Every structure is written in structure tokens, then in C-alpha cells.
């Protein structure tokens, strides 16, 4: 009577094995950048539905965590995008013409850009260049100056399905001479708030130098590094031995990177309290992590006079003459990215994220992207 029927055990075992197309859809697609996903939507109906769900967008943001390209912009000019891999990286409108006015990019974080309008009240905008979605932020409470020291913080979390972000701005105090104050925008509250902390000292913050590492935002000054702890809302200065180079994040720590004598030195912050240690202590504030020599066959004579635009765990971007190069830390390969750049161009990394395509709306006036 049961001939031709599978036993219960056999039926259960059969469910263990998925079709190859299902394996790709469930486990491989979330690791692809947004440009590739846009193409794969046309493969079949199942893939289109999978890619279109809010949960998939959340999963892809957590899985696709590598830098795929860079926005370059000289202040007052239109931005443009250079891709690490042109087959997988791209945005519909690299000039950001979908925004309501011409803007200058101020910061980027995990697929989002923080931009500032050039006219009128110089409004701030948050946008996702992949989906062309944007939000105009409310007016700040303080005067941030003509070139604000903005840092955007967007950290996707497995436990936080809502796309929340913060903006931190260090600005010159108008109430106290030679002091720096901090204002924070929270997308959860959709409002700005000036922190109670005031950092005294005649040190001008370098606007384009801001970087976030493990809950602390750092900026360069001409003679030191200014740190602002977001949790404690406390600030401090510590010694800065180099009046050139940039700050970045490497191996989960703050790093400084600078070019000298044909090589590039990468130092990580090891201890911020060396000034309080006993005299004669051998503990160093900065420890050398890497020394990089670019491929002279690709860079040419420019290897002796290059400047650093960006550094993270995976890649470093270097400017020389009118050309932009990348250095891959894993493969140690030097690559020409673009022949269009200048010494004053700012560099903003791009992650191919689809997360903000699916906004969270708390109310009509407090909608996220």
C-alpha cells in the first residue's frame, strides 16, 4: 500500500538539500553591491521579490561591508565617482543632481552622504546615492562656520532594523574665545542639540579631517588631535607629531597616515594617556603598524611626492599629480583609479548599501529616509 511513497525520514532528509538557485538567492545575494543587485532583479520573479524586501536590504547592508568606490569633490565643483571595480560599483547620478540644490559633500558613512547646500541657509542633506533618496535636516542651533567640521555616523546593526544615524559637528564657540563646542544631530529625535562639553584651547579644527572610531570622533588640529567621546560627551587633546597626513580607522583603532621619502607610514593610536605616565616610561602614544611602498611602475615619479586621501582596513587612496591611485592592503597591489583629481580634492568612501531605500516613519514630520 505504501509502495512508491517516501518514508517520513526520507522526506525530512530531502528538505536538507536546497536547489543551487535557492542557495545563491539565500546566501550569496546579500554580499553583492547594489549595482549588481539592480541587474540581478531581472533574473527571475523570485530574485526580484527577494531583493525588493526590506529584510533583504537590511541583510545586504550588514553583509556587503567593503569600500567599492569614492566620491571626489573640489569645493564649489560637482562631485564625481571613481570605482574600485567598475563592474560592481556605480550610482545613477554621481553629480548628485537629484538633490534640490548644488551641494558640497561633507562626510560619508557606510553608504550615506552628508551634504551641505551652497546657497541660502546652507541646509544639510542626508542622502543615499544608490537609491537617490534624501532628507533635508532641520536647521542647526549653532553657527557651524563656512566650512563645518562634520562627521556622519551610520553604523548598521543586526539588532537595529531602523536606519538611524548621527551627525557630529565641532564648531568655534561664540561665547568663549579660543574654545570649541560640539553639536549633535540625531535621526531618532530629528533634532540638533549642543553638547554641554566645551573644549578650551587655541586650536583650529581641520574641517575635512574628522573620523569616527569606536564611539569617539577625532579631528586634526595644526598641533594635536581633538577627541570627542559620544557616550560620555567629553573631549580631550593629545599630541600630534605630524603636521601633514590624514586620520583614519585601521584594525578598529585610530590611525595616522603620511607619506615620506618615497614610502607611506601608517601608525595606530596605542595609548592616549602617555602624558600622565611616570617620567622615563617607554610607552608610546603611536605605534608603527605598516610601511607601504607603492608600485613605481604604476605611480612613476609621483611615488616620491604623493598625498593620502583615504585609508581603511581594506584600501588606501593616494593622490599624485593629477592622478588618483589605490593600494589594496590584502593583495598589496597598486592600481590607477582616475586621471581626474587635484591637490584640494576631498575623498569620501562609498559602500553600495540599499538600507535607506526602506525608511522608518515615526510621524510625518520625523520620517527617516
TrEMBL record:
<protein>
    <recommendedName>
        <fullName>F-box associated beta-propeller type 1 domain-containing protein</fullName>
    </recommendedName>
</protein>
<feature type="domain" description="F-box associated beta-propeller type 1">
    <location>
        <begin position="108"/>
        <end position="237"/>
    </location>
</feature>
<dbReference type="GO" id="GO:0031146">
    <property type="term" value="P:SCF-dependent proteasomal ubiquitin-dependent protein catabolic process"/>
</dbReference>
<dbReference type="GO" id="GO:0000151">
    <property type="term" value="C:ubiquitin ligase complex"/>
</dbReference>
<dbReference type="InterPro" id="IPR017451">
    <property type="entry name" value="F-box-assoc_interact_dom"/>
</dbReference>
<dbReference type="InterPro" id="IPR006527">
    <property type="entry name" value="F-box-assoc_dom_typ1"/>
</dbReference>
<dbReference type="Pfam" id="PF07734">
    <property type="entry name" value="FBA_1"/>
</dbReference>
<dbReference type="InterPro" id="IPR050796">
    <property type="entry name" value="SCF_F-box_component"/>
</dbReference>
<dbReference type="InterPro" id="IPR036047">
    <property type="entry name" value="F-box-like_dom_sf"/>
</dbReference>
<dbReference type="GO" id="GO:0006355">
    <property type="term" value="P:regulation of DNA-templated transcription"/>
</dbReference>
<dbReference type="GO" id="GO:0004842">
    <property type="term" value="F:ubiquitin-protein transferase activity"/>
</dbReference>
Amino acid at each position: 500500500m505504501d509502495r512508491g511513497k517516501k518514508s517520513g525520514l526520507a522526506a525530512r532528509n530531502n528538505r536538507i538539500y536546497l536547489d543551487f538557485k535557492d542557495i545563491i538567492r539565500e546566501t550569496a545575494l546579500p554580499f553583492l553591491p547594489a549595482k549588481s543587485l539592480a541587474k540581478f532583479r531581472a533574473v527571475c520573479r523570485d530574485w526580484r521579490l527577494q531583493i525588493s524586501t526590506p529584510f533583504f536590504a537590511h541583510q545586504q547592508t550588514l553583509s556587503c561591508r567593503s569600500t567599492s568606490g569614492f566620491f571626489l569633490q573640489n569645493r564649489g565643483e560637482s562631485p564625481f565617482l571613481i570605482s574600485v571595480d567598475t563592474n560592481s560599483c556605480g550610482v545613477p547620478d554621481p553629480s548628485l543632481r537629484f538633490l534640490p540644490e548644488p551641494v558640497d559633500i561633507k562626510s560619508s558613512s557606510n553608504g550615506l552622504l552628508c551634504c551641505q547646500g551652497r546657497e541660502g541657509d546652507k541646509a544639510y542633506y542626508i542622502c543615499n546615492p544608490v537609491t537617490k533618496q534624501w532628507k533635508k535636516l532641520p536647521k542647526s542651533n549653532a553657527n557651524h562656520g563656512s566650512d563645518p567640521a562634520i562627521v556622519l555616523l551610520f553604523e548598521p546593526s543586526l539588532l537595529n532594523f531602523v536606519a538611524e544615524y548621527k551627525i557630529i559637528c565641532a564648531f568655534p564657540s561664540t561665547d568663549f574665545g579660543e574654545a570649541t563646542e560640539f553639536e549633535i544631530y540625531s535621526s531618532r529625535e530629528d533634532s540638533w542639540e549642543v553638547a554641554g562639553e566645551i573644549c578650551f584651547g587655541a586650536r583650529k579644527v581641520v574641517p575635512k579631517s574628522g573620523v569616527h572610531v569606536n564611539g569617539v570622533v577625532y579631528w586634526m588640529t595644526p598641533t594635536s588631535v581633538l577627541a570627542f567621546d559620544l557616550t560620555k560627551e567629553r573631549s580631550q587633546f593629545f599630541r600630534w607629531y605630524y603636521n601633514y597626513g590624514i586620520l583614519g580607522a585601521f584594525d578598529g583603532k585610530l590611525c595616522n597616515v603620511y607619506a615620506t621619502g618615497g614610502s607611506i607610514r601608517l601608525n595606530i593610536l596605542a595609548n592616549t594617556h602617555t602624558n600622565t605616565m611616570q617620567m622615563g616610561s617607554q610607552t608610546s602614544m603611536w605605534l608603527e603598524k605598516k610601511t607601504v611602498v607603492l608600485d613605481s611602475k604604476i605611480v612613476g615619479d609621483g611615488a616620491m611626492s604623493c598625498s593620502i586621501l583615504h585609508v581603511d582596513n581594506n584600501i588606501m587612496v593616494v593622490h599624485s599629480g593629477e592622478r588618483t591611485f589605490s593600494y589594496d592592503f590584502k593583495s598589496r597591489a597598486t592600481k590607477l583609479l582616475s586621471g581626474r583629481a587635484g591637490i584640494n580634492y576631498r575623498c569620501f568612501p562609498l559602500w553600495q548599501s540599499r538600507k535607506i531605500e526602506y525608511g522608518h516613519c515615526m510621524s510625518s514630520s520625523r520620517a527617516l529616509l
